[in-house]
Write a sequence for this structure.
DNA sequence: ATAACTGCAAACGTTTTGCCAGCAT
DNA sequence: ATGCTGGCAAAACGTTTGCAGTTAT
């Protein structure tokens, strides 16, 4: 845990705004003016792999498009990025209920939601016979 | 609806793989060899604004970081990108139930899920006194 | 001595934009 | 004529990487 890493973690912990890398960089720079953006990215990555922080929504490195405009959910393969539909009806009642509670508490206007499941597609699950644990390590590397 | 736009839409409708822009470009190029990637992006954008297709997960243009590594959900402001925590327990039973059904049907190995609510934060909701409908238009422009 | 790490700058991949020409209203 | 659209190329954006020097064991 270097000085830079320590400061980066401290700053992320201080910020309750779910900062972007750039926002972290700006905050860290006030304490370590010579720090580079590369170092911030590198350490945010390390810190998230070590479980100190979490990346929010890294599921889609690229934008994807869907000609089905109905409400439905997806499973995303964390290895190959493949996206499949989930052939279930959304649990609409539960989600509507949640949306109502959010509106009451947070003062947000809620316009919709995303629910996606992350995992391994059948192909990636089987490839090279690796164990599930090794797969998960691979995803996090 | 130009020829290019029509072909792009047809190809997205043919592909049930939730293609990336590049994959659409490759497919369209087989029919319109001179089409440019810029045109594909422009038209995918237009088609999604007109409701013919959907972009999957456009919530986070940038990666964000969270020092709270516990399972919890977020609301994302579609105008300013602000992310807030939802102060509710996840509806764990329903989601576990859903995960089980997905495993049965899709053969995916499910490792987790994202559930996020999209809307307008209190600040953006109020700014300039616009109506909600105008706000939504603004988001889609 | 060795390994991990930094700052810096360049590279990268995806997406957006500016420009000018062409097409449709 | 006017405005939307296309192709092309360049720019922009967020992120990653190579390198040479530094720091900490």
């Amino acid at each position: 845990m270097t000085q830079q890493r320590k400061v980066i973690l401290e700053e992320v912990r201080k910020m309750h705004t779910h900062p972007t890398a750039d926002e972290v960089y700006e905050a860290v720079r006030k304490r370590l003016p010579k720090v580079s953006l590369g170092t911030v990215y590198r350490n945010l990555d390390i810190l998230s792999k070590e479980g100190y922080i979490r990346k929010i929504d890294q599921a889609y490195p690229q934008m994807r498009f869907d000609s089905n405009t109905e409400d439905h959910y997806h499973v995303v393969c964390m290895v190959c990025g493949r996206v499949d539909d989930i052939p279930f009806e959304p649990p609409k009642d539960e989600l509507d209920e949640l949306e109502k509670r959010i509106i009451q508490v947070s003062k947000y206007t809620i316009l919709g939601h995303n629910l996606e499941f992350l995992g391994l597609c059948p192909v990636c699950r089987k490839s090279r016979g690796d164990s599930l644990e090794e797969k998960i390590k691979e995803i996090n590397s």
